[in-house]
């Protein structure tokens, strides 16, 4: 009797060697950027521990104190201006991140991605651990913590352009909104894990809330050094196939190399088609990337979308602690629901934009819906546990959905413009411009929250609602063009080639 393969083995052998490598690279890049976001989250959890309501804390019997109000706080955050000081820490990181992002894309195009990512994750782990060691070294200098945040912000810029460029080397005919939305969930997964890990230690020894995530991202840096394969040619896999779907009304997404001539490694074979293809793998300038239709509009939209998203990232646990009177761990755990909603929102945005072909319209509708939901969350979101959970999920989906769509599928569509010719090296610059502009908003949001929150949380939410409206306005021209396409007055071509 002829033996048959076990079902598991049949499943394994049903995939080609190339498919296994591509899946492996997709998983690795997912883990890498999850680690990046995981290490950014602890500061938002620890804030409510650095400045507490000491009247509700049981004082040790052997502790001699002179101030009953601030005895349990961590100087210098024991003063009335603690929210402003928290804003300084946030912006030390975010301003450095925003500035560094514009240069990171340049380095990402010119340095080996394996070394670049490994270095970035190891250094991010070092500075994250140094922040936590301030607890054990009994450091109370704002300058120390601000310097650590600046350096960590610069190191964190190595992540996104390099990860996207690596994916671009492996995936040719790209995945559209749904797949990109699923892959981009690494952002929210990292935020959730970072909140949960930091929450375990925040009430007992908040330094470990930084040290453990720092060790995790450093470990992924070592993993990157030993396992990352930058290009398919390095392991004798076939490069991505490059053919157009224009007969189906679509154009090629950005995530591919320039031509099949890229099979040649280090220019070992010199043919005329390869020389032509090589011209399209040169790094593009900032001006050339900015001239791609849609880049400026989506970059400015992302500025305000990230302003809202990062304000929640850094201030939501403190808001929940202050308004709903949860302890730091409970507030951190509750804040993860916002990121759970972000995962669902990113996937939903990708699905809807795939079906309709309207990236800008999808973003605009979600941003418009987010404004009243933010207003409702501020006024009724803390009335009951069920209301809090539901509002956090909905607000997370509506706020992070457009953010996820712009940084993934929209970037892929913009890369179909003929000036790029499918240049995966140019992807690093385009991504850096879009995410770098968005990071300016990410820096402004927590800063404004720190300045406005002393006047009342209502004013913070009015600021967030205004930012949502401005994000919509920057997309108005693109939405109008998409509407004309649906009415049949202009050709519907995904990729913004005719905008």
TrEMBL record:
Q: Which residues form the Major facilitator superfamily (MFS) profile domain?
A: 28-483
Per the record, GO CC terms? endoplasmic reticulum membrane
Q: Where is this region: Disordered?
A: 237-260
Could you tell me the keywords of this UniProt record? Antiport, Endoplasmic reticulum, Glycoprotein, Membrane, Sugar transport, Transmembrane, Transmembrane helix, Transport
Asked whether the UniProt record includes Cell cycle among its keywords, one would answer: no
Catalysed conversion reaction: D-glucose 6-phosphate(in) + phosphate(out) = D-glucose 6-phosphate(out) + phosphate(in)
Is the keyword Hydrolase in the record? no
Q: How is this protein situated with respect to the membrane?
A: Multi-pass membrane protein
Q: Where in the cell is it found?
A: Endoplasmic reticulum membrane
Membrane spanning segments where?
20-38, 84-103, 115-137, 143-171, 183-202, 208-229, 295-316, 360-380, 386-406, 426-448, 460-480
Family, according to the entry, reads as follows: Belongs to the major facilitator superfamily. Organophosphate:Pi antiporter (OPA) (TC 2.A.1.4) family.
Which protein is depicted?
Glucose-6-phosphate exchanger SLC37A2
Native organism:
Acanthochromis polyacanthus (spiny chromis)
């Amino acid at each position: 009797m002829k033996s048959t393969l076990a079902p598991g083995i049949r499943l394994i052998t049903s995939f080609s060697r190339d498919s296994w490598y591509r899946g492996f690279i997709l998983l690795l890049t997912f883990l890498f950027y999850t680690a990046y976001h995981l290490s950014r989250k602890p500061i938002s959890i620890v804030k409510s521990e650095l400045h507490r309501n000491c009247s509700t804390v049981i004082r040790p019997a052997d502790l001699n104190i002179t101030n009953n109000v601030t005895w349990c706080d961590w100087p210098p955050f024991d003063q009335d201006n603690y929210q402003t000081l928290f804003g300084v820490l946030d912006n030390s990181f975010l301003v450095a991140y925003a500035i560094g992002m514009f240069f990171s894309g340049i380095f990402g195009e010119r340095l080996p991605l394996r070394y670049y990512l490994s270095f970035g994750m190891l250094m991010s782990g070092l500075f994250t651990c140094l922040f936590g060691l301030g607890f054990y070294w009994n450091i109370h200098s704002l300058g120390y913590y601000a310097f650590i945040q600046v350096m960590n912000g610069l190191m964190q810029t190595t992540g996104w352009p390099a990860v996207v460029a690596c994916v671009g080397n492996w995936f040719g005919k790209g995945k559209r909104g749904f797949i990109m939305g699923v892959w981009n969930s690494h952002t929210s997964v990292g935020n959730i894990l970072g909140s949960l890990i930091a929450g375990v230690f925040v009430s007992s020894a908040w330094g470990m809330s930084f040290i453990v995530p720092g060790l995790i991202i450093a470990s992924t840096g070592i993993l990157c050094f030993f396992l990352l394969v930058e290009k398919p040619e390095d392991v004798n896999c076939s490069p991505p196939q490059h053919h157009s779907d224009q007969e189906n009304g679509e154009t090629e997404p950005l995530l591919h190399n320039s031509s099949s001539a890229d099979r040649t490694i280090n220019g070992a074979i010199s043919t005329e088609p390869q020389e032509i293809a090589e011209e399209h793998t040169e790094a593009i300038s900032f001006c050339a990337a900015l001239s791609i239709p849609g880049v400026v509009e989506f970059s400015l939209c992302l500025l305000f979308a990230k302003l809202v998203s990062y304000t929640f990232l850094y201030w939501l646990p403190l808001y929940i602690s202050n308004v709903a009177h949860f302890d730091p761990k409970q507030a951190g755990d509750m804040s993860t629901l916002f990121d759970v909603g972000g995962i669902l929102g990113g996937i939903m945005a990708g699905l809807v934009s795939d079906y309709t072909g309207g990236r800008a319209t999808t973003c605009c509708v979600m941003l418009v819906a987010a404004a009243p939901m933010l207003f409702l969350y501020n006024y009724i979101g803390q009335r009951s546990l069920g209301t809090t959970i539901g509002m956090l999920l909905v607000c997370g989906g509506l706020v992070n959905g457009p953010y996820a769509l712009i940084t993934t599928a929209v970037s892929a569509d913009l890369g179909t413009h003929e000036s790029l010719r499918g240049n995966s090296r140019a992807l690093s610059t385009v991504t850096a411009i879009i995410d770098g502009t968005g990071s300016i908003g990410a820096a402004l949001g927590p800063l404004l929250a720190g300045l406005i929150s002393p006047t009342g949380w209502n004013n913070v939410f009015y600021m967030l609602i205004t930012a949502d409206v401005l994000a919509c306005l920057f997309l108005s021209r693109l939405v109008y063009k998409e509407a004309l396409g649906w009415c049949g007055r202009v050709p519907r071509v995904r990729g913004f080639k005719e905008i």
